[in-house]
């Protein structure tokens, strides 16, 4: 039985460190988020001690994938294939890339109560959304030169 526990613990520490780095915290701040001291955090990451459930529950509140810590399986396994790919790709991005994805999602989400401006011309241009920029200039067509 201790061999199984030992094998489990050796992989748990590695996964815990991976999650801490993914979240972007140092050992001191991550430990504080889990309600423990840095010394305990180091022990967990070095597979010298096992954390309690309170620690794991607190870490889940800051976005740690506790299912991954305990099983080695991403919580995304409960999702469809496309959703798993999205999460895996998102986690691989740096902070700037993640911000870009979030902006893309935000920009594509339908907002039913937002003001809508639709302008149609001869070639049926449609502008949908808020126009808030100052000093906008639009040129439709060009002057025809006389021959």
UniProtKB/TrEMBL annotation:
Pfam families: HTH_3 (PF01381). InterPro entries: Cro/C1-type_HTH (IPR001387), Lambda_DNA-bd_dom_sf (IPR010982). Residues 16-69 form the HTH cro/C1-type domain. It comes from the Bacteria. This is Helix-turn-helix transcriptional regulator. It comes from Undibacterium umbellatum.
